[in-house]
Specification:
Order of helices and strands: EEHHEEEEEE
Helix content: 10-25%
Mean pLDDT: 80
Radius of gyration: 17 Å
Number of strands: 8
Structural class: mainly beta
Distance between the termini: 41 Å
Strand content: 25-35%
Low-confidence stretches: 22-29
């Protein structure tokens, strides 16, 4: 998907990776959030960078701001995405930790556990 790339000059066990912007959001012509989303983000007094959300990517994290047009979600320590509220199936609450994918908002208690988060059976 182009979200991470290996740093040139690193190999196998000592490989380093860098996070990059998803190519799909750049190809869609929406590489910068709207002025309205940027103003909502600036009202949160947080440091970081705001990107437009790509509906085909799953974003996990808390909602830090929301109004009638946009919901701003923290997806990394200084990385935020702006979701269009009209494209979502529900209005997210500020402070809620949710997963957003294809316009669906999923609360953590409703998420399936997979991979590293999967609970293991206790060993006897």
């Amino acid at each position: 998907m182009g979200a991470i790339t290996r740093v040139p000059g690193t190999a196998t066990r000592n490989a380093c990776y860098a996070i990059t912007l998803p190519r799909q959001s750049q190809d869609a012509g929406c590489s910068e959030p709207s002025d309205r989303a940027q103003a909502l983000f600036q009202s949160t007094d947080t440091d970081g960078r705001l990107y437009p959300a790509n509906p085909s990517i799953r974003y996990d994290g808390p909602i830090v701001a929301a109004d009638g047009w946009y919901a701003i979600q923290r997806v990394a320590s200084q990385t935020f995405v702006a979701h269009s509220v009209q494209a979502l199936d529900d209005s997210p609450q500020v402070g809620a930790v949710v997963s957003i994918h294809h316009g669906h908002i999923i609360a953590p208690e409703r998420q399936e556990t997979r991979g590293m988060n999967k609970k293991r059976k206790p060993t006897p």
